[in-house]
Design a protein that fits this description.
alpha+beta, 4-stranded antiparallel beta sheet, 14% strand
């Protein structure tokens, strides 16, 4: 007997037909975790930062980079289990040529109505998503309760929304420049790898993926924020803290994501210092 198509997969196929790259979400609005073959970017990741690939893993790995419009991939056996247990559907706004202004509080919604041009709007659990036509760099915490989701990010699909879509305005792009700048801790100098070889972590794909996933992990936390921030800082430092890969920009992105979840600069700095102390870096 043929099994009925799960509702999330039906939605995903409909969106894919419209040219919107989609992926399954598990409980907690998180993407499917990497399979053992892809853990730690062992698969080689992807040099193209705007789209998925070239990893040939058939599973829905790699968060936003797994998003696809290919119905054969979406309905493949490797994706079947993910759809059976999916709690929702996400999409890659940048891959669809879009930017989502994620307004996570009613105060943020009130601000947007005063400061931003009207556009397609859809209600969320705690606020609204405002979608504009055009892409930009994703950035969390550009204002209290405001995240920008476009390239190298994913957003949960909550429906088509209402109202005509407006081209991405300068007022949204300018939010990145106005984002609060957290305190930047200074990493201890670390010798270059022995033997004269280049540290593998300096691969832009590997490092960018690690920072992006860390931001997403913090952003997705709904409880135990302190613990999540510390564990995320610990994971980043355990991979990149000894090889000289991390820059102030990377650290600022992590701090910004944590501050967007309500962490103070003092808590961020303490968590970072504690993670460094735990690892001895």
């Amino acid at each position: 007997m043929t099994q009925p198509t799960p509702a999330p997969l039906q939605t995903a196929l409909r969106l894919a037909k419209m040219g919107i790259p989609v992926l399954p979400l598990r409980r907690g609005k998180l993407p499917v975790g990497n399979c053992p073959a892809c853990t730690g970017s062992a698969c080689g990741d992807r040099p193209n930062m705007l789209a998925a690939g070239p990893c040939q893993c058939p599973a829905p790995c790699h968060a936003w980079a797994a998003a696809t419009t290919d119905p054969n991939v979406l309905t493949s056996p490797a994706w079947a289990r993910a759809w059976q247990h999916a709690a929702g559907v996400a999409y890659h706004p940048g891959g669809a040529g879009l930017t989502v202004v994620d307004l996570d509080t009613q105060d943020a919604v009130a601000w947007a109505r005063q400061a931003l041009p009207a556009t397609t709007t859809v209600p969320t659990t705690r606020g609204e998503h405002w979608t504009y036509l055009g892409t930009m760099t994703s950035h969390n915490g550009v204002r209290p309760g405001v995240d920008l989701k476009s390239r190298m990010s994913y957003a949960r699909w909550r429906g088509p929304g209402t109202g005509p879509m407006t081209p991405l305005p300068d007022a949204v792009r300018a939010l990145v420049d106005k984002a609060p700048a957290p305190v930047r801790p200074v990493l201890s100098a670390v010798p270059a790898p022995a033997g004269g070889g280049q540290c593998i972590h300096r691969s832009p794909a590997y490092l960018e993926r690690g920072i992006t996933m860390a931001e997403q992990r913090i952003t997705a936390a709904r409880s135990a924020i302190h613990h999540t921030v510390f564990r995320t800082f610990l994971a980043v430092l355990s991979t990149h803290g000894r090889c000289g890969c991390l820059t102030e920009e990377h650290i600022e992105r992590l701090f910004t994501a944590a501050q967007a979840k309500g962490e103070s600069v003092r808590h961020c700095t303490a968590a970072w210092d504690n993670a460094r102390a735990r690892l001895g870096v």
